[in-house]
Design brief:
By secondary structure, this protein is an all-alpha fold. About 45% of the residues lie in helices and about 0% in strands. The protein contains 3 helices and no strands. It binds zinc ion.
């Protein structure tokens, strides 16, 4: 059974790890910003989900916003490998 002390120790270790990573991230973001100032390199919030519909306007799964993989593998689907034999 973990003691409060050991848990606190873990939390403190993780907290310092997180701030070290945040410092590292800030440093990398400033480097990237210097290289490409027109791009927003700050990802404090998670990036928006990738919008397949822009690249695959004919994917039925994307049109219906289907969460399942299978819906995106049909004809013109964004996950369609194009190697299926359509019998043509
Ligand atoms: Zn899709």
């Amino acid at each position: 059974m973990a003691t409060i002390e050991s848990l606190l120790e873990k939390v403190n270790a993780l907290t310092s790890e997180v701030s070290a990573l945040k410092d590292q991230q800030a440093h990398l973001v400033s480097l990237l910003s210097a290289l490409k100032p027109d791009t927003n390199w700050n990802h404090d919030s998670p990036p928006p989900p990738y919008d397949h519909s822009t690249d695959y306007p004919l994917c039925q799964g994307c049109i219906g916003n289907e969460p399942g993989q299978m819906a995106h593998m049909g004809y013109m689907g964004c996950l369609n490998s194009g190697t299926q034999d359509d019998g043509l």
